[in-house]
Amino acid sequence: MSSASGVRCDQGTLLVPPSARTIRWGSFTVVAGVAALAVWTGGRKGANPASFALPVATALLCVWLCFLFDDPAAETSSGSATPLLLRRGVRAAIAVPAAASAWFACTWIGPLTGPTGAMTISFGALVLVALGAGAAAVRVVGGSRSGLFAAAVVVFVALVLPVAAGRPPTVDPSLPPWGAPAAYWGLVAALAVAVLVTAHRDPARPSARSRARRW
Amino acid sequence: MVASLRDVRSGARASAIPVVPARPSFAGISAIGGVEARKMLTHPVYGVSLLFGLLLFRGVLGFGGTGGSRVGLWLAGGLLMGAVVGTLLSANIAALRPRRDQMLELYGSLPSPPETRTAGSLAGMVLGPGSIAVALTAIAWWVFGRDPDIGPHVDGFLMVQFPLAILALGTSAIAVGRWFPSLFGGPLIIAAYIFTPIGWVAPWIMPRSSGIAPGWHMAYIAAALTMWVALALARDRRTRSRFAIAGIALVFGIFAIVQQTPPGGY
What we know:
The structure holds 2 protein chains of 2 kinds.
Chain A: H1 2-22, H2 25-42, H3 53-66, H4 74-77, H5 84-106, H6 117-141, H7 146-165, H8 181-199, H9 208-214
Helix pairs in contact in A: 1-5, 2-3, 2-5, 3-5, 3-6, 3-7, 6-7, 6-8
Chain B: H1 2-15, H2 26-42, H3 44-61, H4 68-100, H5 104-108, H6 115-146, H7 156-179, H8 185-195, H9 198-201, H10 214-234, H11 240-260
Helix pairs in contact in B: 2-4, 2-6, 3-4, 4-6, 4-7, 4-8, 6-7, 7-10, 10-11
């Protein structure tokens, strides 16, 4: 058991450089720049960027994460012995800290004085939504088109749903459409984790129902 | 050394792909335009944008869906809002499609001039999302005109700006897609319009009551359309004339922006 986990650890370490090479860093630079510009513009003339500009910047960074599993090398690496969960885990371990750093930097622009609890929990939930939607979309529509579908889910959760259902209509993470911020974003995160886990099940492995039927 | 350099130069010239002197044919452009129009309208991004437009406009209006005229206003405004975003995103994806489908080499080997693909995408945008924009504008004109709040501001000058702005944004999306081959191009155009001063310095849609100079505003939209078309086609063949047209359109567009602005601002 310990030797198996050691092999996985070695595989993960070896996967870091090729995974980092295939992540779209050029797009990340542009997206992070536009996110920072959005927050800076949203904070001019006494306006509060936390209520509109920062949520949009958060959505932009999460849209970039939607394309994380849209990996051009996925077809090649799917034949390797390294499990899908480990391969994607390595990609997420590289990309999510980068997105989180850019988002954290955005929370200090203009009149903002760092992340609040509602901002942080909403960012965490949207990251999970982006990863869950990306993984599910790869399974449903295939690798080359999955990012667009996942991006639509993130835009819906982050911007469209709060404006359409909120009273008042706002994208401010501290004023969610239903309930308290922690409960609302916690529920969103829980649903995203459920989708993420389901989408990472090994397709070759029989489901619990079919295993029970066998008994 | 000079002789070897001369040899290299003449060798390079001899082995270079000859420049196609022919212009793209109308039949080729219209055929690709028809296919692209169908692809743009049936792309999920277009449908999802219309749906999101309806949902967002419902929140903006802040109503529960009661009252006939408010429902009409919601449907017309929401669909127009969705058509703007949907045209922009689907046109950007259309410009990226040959690259994403790894068909660039195949298209490059066809006897038609390289501009045919880009011109076909532009024609598809006019035939597909452009036609939908005209139809939606006609419906919105009737609905907006009956609304007591915005009815007094509605006239032909205001309504003609909707399809023109949609076409201009779609053209910019195709040009950006040709020069910046990434799916992030479309969302970045939207973010740039919302979060940079360009949105209020050079607005697309303004009523006559804002004090805007109508003639100069139309001139600005025409200049923007010309600039983006020239830039999109310049990606296929970088001729001086195309960059010159884009440059002149840019200068004229900036001049028109200055002229259209009322003395005290909007």
